[in-house]
Every structure is written in structure tokens, then in C-alpha cells.
Amino acid sequence: MRRQHITGHYLAVALICVLMLNFSHSSSESLRCGLLTMATPVTGLTNICKAGVHALVASTTTAVSPRVRAKKKDMAKQLQRLEVENERLRSQVAGLLELAGQENQLRRQLLGGDGSDVSEMMQRSQDRLEQQLAAQLQATPARVVYRGFSSWMSSVWIDVGTHTNKKLGSTVVAKNSPVVIGNAVVGVVEHVGRYRSRVRLITDVALTPSVRAVRGNLQNQALSSHIDAALETLELREDLENPSALEALQSLKGQLKAEGQTWFCAKGELCGYNKGLWRQGRGVLRGTGFNYDFSDDKGPARDLRTGQAAEGDVVPILKRGDLLVTTGMDGVFPEGLFVARVTQIDTLREGGYYYDLEAKPVVSNLDDISLVFVLPPAAGVL
Question: What is the spatial distance between Cα 287 and Cα 298, in angstroms, rounded to a whole number?
Fold first, then answer.
């Protein structure tokens, strides 16, 4: 009887395995999302129980009235809401500053040109700026609630989904919705559940955004945003009094504002750097196909090796430190989002017609991100 009982367990396990192998991809994703949604409250309940135990122990030594505890709890919730709202405002302000810089750059180019096709260029620029501004204003905040060990640098789960769209009254969280922090790309939504969604990170080998190298004013804006954050933090930290550091950062910020021109250089694709499960290139992106063989609305075509334009100055099409921004040509990410910085350019192969490179994401702390923003998907990819 015992042997038959054990055999029955084996048969049940085998049957479950066969059924799981026959699940469709969408069914398995829905099941995974549902299990994650159910598991999150359990984790929260555990934390609440732990907090309750600590509060009970503390109450034996210090008498705290229920009114004070309730007030502290309300203050914690309000602080969390303010944190989310503050990050939303930071993101929108950064987006507006970037759009203003792009508009000023375009005006300088038009004033220095011969006046041909000015109205067409102005219209394209205005449409692009309006689309970017609309996307920034519709961005919805989301918190990272889970990340699997086996896919640590590939994906994360966030606490928004179709239920969020109903609350917002529009479709913001959808497949291929860009996920950002400020103006920097984090990844893209690849699965949407009711309350949870999975984000494929920029470091995943399967995500290949179209990017181009920029140098000058736009590159300086990205660095200035980091300097502003450092200055704000240092000014609030009274225990870190270092006037020379503050003066050096202020001086560097002034130097970055002095240069007003932006050079748009080589275009190509980026993807994650996969070296196997235990040897992943953490925080490293690989770029391929970078050249500037054809003229576009950003500038003339340039020689691959010298950077010489047919009629104009010499500007290298790639340099270490160049900022890589989205082009909008992949149909997923809007134009102008910051993606990575070039750290290494491979030697051009004999007879080659493009460069390969390595880069590091602008969002360098992907291991520690907790709050992100989801932009509405580009038109035509819903």
C-alpha cells in the first residue's frame, strides 16, 4: 500500500510537469504575474508582523499612545507620497529643460543656415518636442517590487498594470511602454498584468534600442544634472563641510554651460553584454553598426575614419565619453532619451564600414533602483 501511495505522488508530479510544459507563453506569464501579485501582500504582511513585534517589545519600555502611533503612521504614508510626487516633478522638470535646450540648438542651426527648408525643419522639431512633452507629462511612477536572482540584470517587476490604466483614464502601462528615471532609459515593459508588470532592463541582451552619439551641449546637460544633485546633497549635509569641493563643482558647472553647440554623430544599436549566467557583463552594453554614411536632419554624412563632411568641418563620429541617446527609429523609445556613455571603441576592422563599442548605462545603479517612471507607448505599438 505504501509503495502504491508513493507511486501516486510521483504520477501526480509528472502530470503537473507535463501540464506546465504545455502552457502557452501568455498563460505562463499570466500565472507568474498572478503568483507574484499574491506573494507581494504576504511579504508585506510578514513585515507588518515584524513591525508589530518590535512595537510590542518597545511598548514594554516606553509607553506610546495609540494616537501618537497613528499619527506617525500617517506621516510615513504622507512622506512616501511626497517622495513619489517629488520624483515625478524632478523627471518632468528635467524633461522640460532638455526640450528647451534642443529647441535653442535648433534655432541656432537655423539662424546659421541658408534658410532653405526652414519651415519644414521647424515643423518637424515642433512635432517632436510636443510628443516628448506629452509623454513626460503622462509618465506614471511605479515601484520595483521583485527581481529574480536568475534574471537579475534582465528584468524587474513593478507595481502597475491594467488597473493603473483604468485609474488614469488612458493607456500608459502597456507592452513596449518605455521605463525611465528622469530622462534616462531603464528598460521597456514586456508583460502587463492587472496589478504587476515586468520590465526588460536595458542590460538585457534581447533589448536593442537605436541610438546615436552626441557631443557638446546635450552631453553637458546630462553631466550638469548629476552635478546639481551632488550640490544639493552637499549643501544639506552640514556634517560634510568642504567649501573647496562646492566651489570646484560650481566652477565645473559654469564650464559646462559655456559651450552651446551640440554635435550629432554616429548612429547604431545597443544591447546587453551576455557572457553566460555566472559571467555576465554587469552594467556593460555592446554597441554595433555605428557609422554616419547618410545625411539627416541633424547634419551631413561624415567619413568613417576622419569625420570629414563633404562640405564642412571635421568632427570625429565617435569618441570616448560620448553620450548615446535614442533616435526614435526603433519605434519603441522616443527620440532624445539618455541611454549610455561610450567607454571603449573597438579598432575598425580591415574593410569594415562600422564601429563596435562598449558603453555603460546612464542609470548606473540598476541593481538598486526602487522607483521608476512608465511612459505611454509610441503610437502604433499598442
Answer: 21
Tell me: do 229 and 116 sit in the same domain: no
CB distance 224 to 254 below 8 Å: no
Task: Measure the CA–CA gap between 277 and 80, rounded to whole angstroms.
Answer: 36
In the predicted structure, residue 7 carries a pLDDT above the cut 90: no
Under 8 Å between Cβ of 33 and 196: yes
Domain count, the chain: 2
State the burial class of residue 101 (Cβ atoms within 10 Å of its Cβ: 0-12, 13-18, 19+): middle
- The residue that leads in pLDDT, 274 or 236, is 236
Banded pLDDT at 76 (limits 50, 70, 90):
low
Distance CA 342, CA 84 (A): 31
The structure's pTM equals 0.69
Q: Which three cell numbers stand for residue 258?
A: 559655456
Which CATH number covers residue 121?
A: 2.40.10.340
State phi, psi for 359 to the nearest 5 degrees: -150, 160
pLDDT digits (tens, 9 = 90+) for 146-164: 887 766 678 899 999 999 9
Residues 232 and 344 in one domain: yes
Instruction: Tell me how far apart the alpha carbons of residues 307 and 304 are, in angstroms, rounded to a whole number.
Output: 6
Mean pLDDT of 20-39: 57
CA distances from 2 to 6, 15, 161, 314 (A): 6, 20, 48, 84
Q: What is the pLDDT of residue 342?
A: 96
Check whether residue 183 and residue 76 sit in a common domain.
Answer: yes
Which domain covers residue 222, as residue numbers?
210-361
Residue type, 146: Y
